[in-house]
Amino acid sequence: MNNEYELLSKMNYDTLCKHLIEKYGEVKGSYFVNETCRTPNSKIKRSSEGLFVHHIKENEFVQLNNTRYALLAPYEYQLSENLLYCDYIEHMLLHMCI
Fold this sequence. Notes:
- This protein has four helices and two strands; from the N terminus they run H-H-E-H-E-H.
- By secondary structure, it is mainly alpha-helical.
- The radius of gyration is 13 Å and the shape is globular.
- The model has no long low-confidence stretch (mean pLDDT about 95).
């Protein structure tokens, strides 16, 4: 395993989230364009850089990127302060912590 990923795997969820926000910067917009949670915000995507958006509050509610489940949670969970960027392995590590 890559040394960086090995270090990340030893972090708790909150520390890992803070680290990833410092590493990639803050997400500049909400996940969905409005409170109906039907249309994802394409302006926040960084997939061309190999990065994905992770909902920090997925440790409280599952599948916050899915309209059906997103509507069950407070809309605030879709706002930029509750999102972060991560790569595939970092995303897996986040979900392992959850």
